[in-house]
Amino acid sequence: MSQSIDIPKIDTLAQELAAIQQTSSKRIALLGSRHVPITHQKLIEMMSYALVLGGNRLVTSGAAGTNSAAIKGAMRADPNLLTVILPQSLDRQPRESIEQLNQVIHLVENSDNDALSLGEASALCNREIISRCQQLICFAFHDSQTLLKTCEEAEEQGKLVTLFYFD
Q: Does residue 29 contact residue 130 with C-beta atoms inside 8 Å?
């Protein structure tokens, strides 16, 4: 019996192997849910710390949870290798996030999106983030529609996507 070869899987495998072997720094986007247990936030913080310490540039957004943990780890490793892109202007962010965001050197505000709902602004922001990266690491729940759509769009653009589910 003959087997058919699934070409997309071979391309994905080759892409993943190339990413593992790449020794130069990469632009990595790290995104995820706001609703993350503290233990998971600590793991995400350690991951972003290690990625930046390895010379990679990290791009994320400014929300609580996953993104806040990524910011914390990157800031500890090298604040110059972190870019935070906000879905709306800084003053539209939650009070608990603003103090952390004020310390970010490379902060991009999208004040043009202030009239949009947070969901719409977040979707646009995520598109901008994946346009700036080579690889996307995402932490989501199975019902995190905006994040799952972002992963889909990143894959369609040929980005390497690693998706972790909390549930």
A: yes
The reported pTM is 0.85
Angstrom distance (rounded) from CA 135 to CA 47: 14
Torsion of CA 8, 13, 15, 21, to 10 degrees: -170
Separation between Cα atoms, residue 158 and residue 135, nearest integer Å: 9
Distance in Å from the first CA to the final CA of the chain: 39
Angle between helices 38-53 and 66-77 (to 10 degrees): 40
Look at residues 159, 89, 88, 164 and name the one whose alpha carbon lies nearest to residue 130: 159
Dig out the tokens for 124 from the structure.
């646009």
Q: Which CATH class is domain 25-165?
A: alpha beta
Task: Map out the domains of the chain as residue ranges.
Answer: 25-165
Nearest to 96 by CA among 63, 72, 48: 63
Tens-digit pLDDT profile for residues 126-158: 999 999 999 999 999 999 999 999 999 999 999
What's the one-letter identity of residue 72?
A: K
